[in-house]
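Figure 2 data, in text form.
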Amino acid sequence: MMNVHIFTFETEGKKALGFDTGLDAQGFAQAKLAQFITEQGFILYPEGRKEIWKPAAVIEMDSPAAPGEGKRMIIRGPAFEGKRFDGILEDGRREDALDALRFWIRARLKDEAVPIWPAAVIVQASGALLFPPDFLCTRCLQAEGTEALFSGRDAYVNPALSGGEAAAFSAAVMLYRIFAGKLPWDLTSAKPEDTLHEDMNEGVFLPARLAAPGLDEKLAALIDRALFPGKGGKRTDLGEFAAALEGSASSFVKALSESEFNALEEERKKLQKRKTVSVQSRRFVIRNSTIIAGIAVVVLVAGLIARSIVEGQKDRPTTKGMRAEEVVSAYYNSFNTLDHMMMEACVIEKAGKEDINMVTNFFVMSKVRQAYEIGQLTMLSAPEWKAQGSPALPVPVFGITDLSIELNGGDESRELVSYETRYMIYYPGSAEETAPAELTATGETPPMIPQILSIRDEVTLIKHKDAWRISEINRRQD
């Protein structure tokens, strides 16, 4: 059954394909949609034949999408029996969806005019595809609501890409939905338009092998590489998908033993939690810094930070004279004081680089907010927040608590020693998720509850120029 906003009906004794605009006569006139009626689409047949398809007229009639709600303006054109591609993907029947995707890939490889979003194509079981004018498909999605627009078009299209890369990206999203039963992106937030493109461009999605346990490893890797190849990587080509998709949908998924499934599920949970915290923390810093940076007071802030750095260079911290365990303790306690310079003194080469960058970002953001919000509390350390009874406050909380340090191997006489550290780390939480609606509606700063993770690190130290320094940190989440 075709989506109710696109339907087959009889008029003047003939079957026709109708597109419900969701508008009455007055709304249709105000939207000036009549000017688009001359736009045309096309049909591609399996043997390669291409046929022009274009709307024939606009009629006013009762719509299957809104029975009993009055007449709507329906754009009609030549009949074409089939189903909208996004509807096939939503149905969850893998074999039908994979067949439709093969038809679409074949058509796209032959003709680059083929749209790359599934709501823009109607599929016949024979393999014939109708691509109506874009404005018709978009209008029907708009009539269905914002969610339909995102799940039928926007979730499949990365506006930062073009040509073959854009097509391969869309194919990967479709494959992800076929085998994982869901989209790679989270569209449940209040304003998905604020995060959707960020997620696409930053690769914020669960790898296909974890989202669809048992999925063929090669196919999963092609999907991931088409969605986000990583820095310097090459995206999967649409032709690679065409070559890889021989066989039934069931042939791409193997049955897993209980232990295999549980291991993937555990990996999925840990990765999802780690990614969520990492993304929230990074975006929190970026968004706050961007807003405040546009204010003239940033000039003052730059002076404060420059002076702080210059003064710090004069009396740069050092670990000389400190025992190895004291160096470890100093490194982790610096999270709470935002002392990135002490952290740098505790490490060598690239050890702790991500930690130090994160603490530096929070230090800069704190200085900016101090200059802008004079006299106001701008950040709370995790131990202070916990000592206050863990209240919901309109300020971010960052730092660590419950630090324990245990000798893991080696000794100081050999100038190589390792420790195991355990601690709880606190990242700024999302105010939107924890704030009552009445607070956000009034424009007040809503309270925040931090994200908390239990972490275990293996920390290796070496003696460098008569001072103990951390050379490696191996981290895992409990």
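Caption note: The first strand starts at residue 6 and ends at 11.
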